[in-house]
Amino acid sequence: MSDFKTLKSGRKQRSFVPQTAQTVSADSPTVADAIMEAPTEPQRTEDTAASQAKTLETVSYEGLFSVIPQSLEIKESTETGRSLYSTTIFKPGDILFSVKPHVAALSISHLDRYCSSCFGEGDSSSLKRCTGCKTVMYCSPVSPAFIGYYHDHRFEIAGPLFGVFSEHVYQFSERTDPGQGDSLNLWSKPNLLWSMIECQQRDWSLHKNECTALQQWFKAASAERSDGQEVRPPSDAIRCLGRILWKRQKLGASHTWSKEFDNMQSHRSSLSKDAGSFNSEVHTHLAHGVVGYLGLTSPEQLEPYGIHSAADLVDLVSRFTTNTFTVTTPTLSPLGACVAPSVALINHSCDPNAVIVFPRAESKDVEPLLQVIALKHIQPGEEILTSYIDTTLPRELRQQSLKETYHFTCRCPVCAPVPGAPVDMREAMWCPKKCGGLCVLPTEQDSFTRCAKCGAVVKDTDAVLDALRIGQEALEKAERVQDSDPKKALQLTENLGQILISAGLVPGAHPLLALTRLQTSLLISKLSSAADPDVDMEVEEVFSPQVQQDVGAGQTPASVAAEAQKEKQNALDDAIRAATRAKTGLSQVLVYGHPVRGVAAAELGKLLAVDEPAPPQPNLDVNDNLNAPMPPPNSPAYPPRGPKRLKLALEVLVEAWKELVVGDAIVGVEKELGVWREG
Ligand SMILES: C[S@@+](CC[C@H](N)C(=O)[O-])C[C@H]1O[C@@H](n2cnc3c(N)ncnc32)[C@H](O)[C@@H]1O
C-alpha cells in the first residue's frame, strides 16, 4: 500500500546560512565598517508605539503590487507598518492570492535533486546539469536535434536554446517548414517537448550572469583552498541576492520590479544599533558574500547595480533578511529561499489566520508558485496575518527569534493573552492530581504553579525544571548531530522524550513536541534507509551463505528471518507511536487546517497503511476486531494490528485529507485513500 520511500521527508535545515565569498576576506574592514557606519534612517515601525492607538490608513501604490487582488488592500498603521487587509469574506482553505516570486534559489543540498527554475523534483535521468557552471540542474532538456515543435503547419525551432549536451550555446530563432520525410511523430507531443526545454530557457536571462559568477567563484575558491576539500557553491541567500542585483541592473531602478523590491521594509537603523550581535554578523557575512560572488573587490563597485552607498548595501541585505520566505515542498520540507514583495506586505501573528504554501502549479511558467491561503474565517476589514516563525515554540523563544530577525515585539493573543485565557499548551503540564486540568510550566523566575482546574499545586517543580533544561539541551544536540550521527540523535530524542512525559508535560509542550517530531522523522528515515541492517534484512538475505554462517547456536535461518521481521515490525510500531504523539501535540498548538498538522496526520496515516512486516496470524476474527474499541495511543496495545490497524489508517487518512485543503500535499493522501476506494 505505502512504502517508506514516499514517507521520507527532508529534515529541516536552516536556509540563509551566510557563506562568505572566498575572494573577499570576512576580516576585510570595508564592508563591515560600511554597515556599522551606514547612516540611519527614521524607523517606520518601532515597537515603542504600543501605547498609541492603532490608526489605519489605506495606502495606494500606483502601479505597484498589481498582483494583489481587489479582495485585499494595503493599509498602514503606526504600530506595525503596512499590512494587507481583507475587503471581503474568506473561509478556511480559500486562496487569497498566488504569485511567482521575484527571485528564488535552491539551498545547496537541493541543487542536485530539484530543477533550479521550476523547483520540481527530479533525478539524474530527468534533470540535466548546466554545462557551464556544473552547479544548477534543469528539467531534462532534449538534444538540440530534437528541440522544436510543430505548430500551425510550421515547424518551429524553440529558441533561444542553450545546448546542454555540448559546451556550445545554441541560439536559434528561425522558423523552418518541416521538410519532406521529416518524422513528424517526433513532435507528436509538442507541449511536452516545449515544457522539457522551457525551464532552462526561462531561467537563462538570470542564470547567464549566475553561471559566470559561479564559475569564477569555484575558480577563486579552489585556488585559495589547499586542503583539497570540495568547494561548495554560495548559499541560497547569496545566490538570491546575486539574482536580485542582476535583475535590477537589467531592468533599472525605475522599473516596477525594482521599485517593489525597494519598497520592502529595511531595518537599517536597528542593525547599526545591534553592532556585534549575531544578527549584524549575518548581515556583514551576506554583504561580504554577495560582493565577492559578483566578482567585486569592494562595495563601491556595486554602482552599476543601483547600490550607490554603504547605506544602500545595508538596505539591500536588510530588506532581504526581513522579507525572505523559505520555499518548501508541498509537504513542507524546506527547499530554498525566495523574495515576493507583495506577500512580504503581510504582518506576523503567532496565531495566524493565513498561511503561505508552495503547491505544484498547472504550468511551470508560474513555478515556484507562492500561495496565501486562509486558515480561518476572515471578515472584511480584518488584517491578514501569517506566521514568520515556528509557532510551536514557547513564547520566550518566539519573541527572541522575532526580535533578532524582524526587530519587533509580538503582541498577538498567544504572546499577550488576556487575563483568564486558557493555559497555552506549548507551555503546559498535566495536573499533578490527574484531574484532567492543566498547569502552566514552571520557569526559573516563577516556579510556583497550580492546576487551573482543581487548584492542585505542583510540588516538585525543581524536577520539572531539570527535565525542561536537559530536554532543551538534548534537543539542540540531537538537531546538531541528526545528519552526522542519526543513531545518537534518535537515542537522545527517545530518552529525553520519556523523561519529559514522566515529568508531566503535555504532548504539545516544548521541548517535548520538538523532540517527538524529530524522533518521528529519524524513525521514518531509519525505516526507509536500505542500508540499515537492523531493519532491512529481507527474508532472502537471511538465507544467504554469509548470514547462514553467522547464525548462532540454537538458531536456524528461519528463526533469524523471523527475528529480522519482528525487528522491522517493532521499528514500524515505534515510528507509529512517535507519529501519533507528534500529531496529538501539533493538534494542541496549531489551528485546525494548518498544513503542518495535516502533513503530520498524513504521515501517520501512511505509516499505519504500510504492510506489516510480521502480520498477525490469519485466524483473527476480522469483525470482532474491527468492532472492539480502538486501543488508546498510550496503551501497550497501540498500534493495533491487522484489520484494526487498517481501519485506523483509513480514519487518519480521511482526517488528514480534510485538513489538507490546500496544495499538492493532498495528492499523496488521495493515492493512499484510493487503495480503500478500490476495495
Ligand atoms: C515582512 S515585513 C511586513 C510588512 C511591513 N509591516 C511593511 O510595512 O513593509 C516584516 C516587518 O513588519 C513589521 N511587523 C510585522 N508583523 C508585526 C507585528 N505583529 N507587530 C509589529 N511589527 C510587525 C516588522 O517591522 C517586521 O520586520
UniProtKB/TrEMBL annotation:
Query: Which stretches of sequence are listed as region Disordered?
Result: 1-30, 615-639
Alphabetized SUPFAM superfamilies for the sequence: SET domain (SSF82199)
**Where does this protein come from, organism-wise?**
Ephemerocybe angulata
Pfam families under this entry?
A: SET
Which InterPro entries does the annotation name? Answer: H3K4_H4K5_MeTrfase, SET_dom, SET_dom_sf, TPR-like_helical_dom_sf
Give the source's domain of life in one word: Eukaryota
Pinpoint the SET domain residues.
70-389
Q: Mark out the compositionally biased spans (Polar residues).
A: 16-28
- Pro residues bias located where? 629-639
Which cellular components does GO assign to this protein?
Answer: nucleus
What is this protein's name?
SET domain-containing protein
